[in-house]
Design a protein that fits this description.
Blueprint lengths: L1 H43 L7 E2 L2 E2 H11 L9 H8 L3 H5 L6 H4 L4 H10 L9
Antiparallel strand pairs: 1-2
Helix pairs in contact: 2-3
Amino acid sequence: MHIHFDTTTTYIQTNTQKKGKEEDKMASKKASFMVMIVVVMAISMESSVAIDLCGMTETELNECKPAVTKESPTSPSQLCCDALKHADLNCLCGYKHSPWLGSFGIDPELAVGLPTICGLANAPTC
C-alpha cells in the first residue's frame, strides 16, 4: 500500500508538472501572439504615427543623421542645431551606450558632441 501511495503521488506530481509546463507554453504563445499583433499594428500605422524621441521629431532626427554617421560624417546643418535647442539633451545622452545606435550607422561619440559643435550653452557631459 505504501508503494502504491508513492506511485500515485509521483503520478500526480508528474501530471501537475506537465500541466504547469503546458500552461507555461500556452502563456508564452499568448504573449508571443500579443507581441506580434502590436508589431503588425505598429507597422500598419507607421505612416500615421509620428516619432518623437527626446523632444525631437523624426524629421529633426533625420536632419542630424548626416552629422553622426560612422561613414563620412558632415557638419551639422542649421536645422539640426535648431532642433537640438529644444531637445531633451539628457534624454539623448541616455542612448549613448544603446546597441541600436550602431545598427542605424550612428556613432555615439559624434552624437554626444553635436550640442557642443552647434554651440549650445546647455550641452551636458554624457
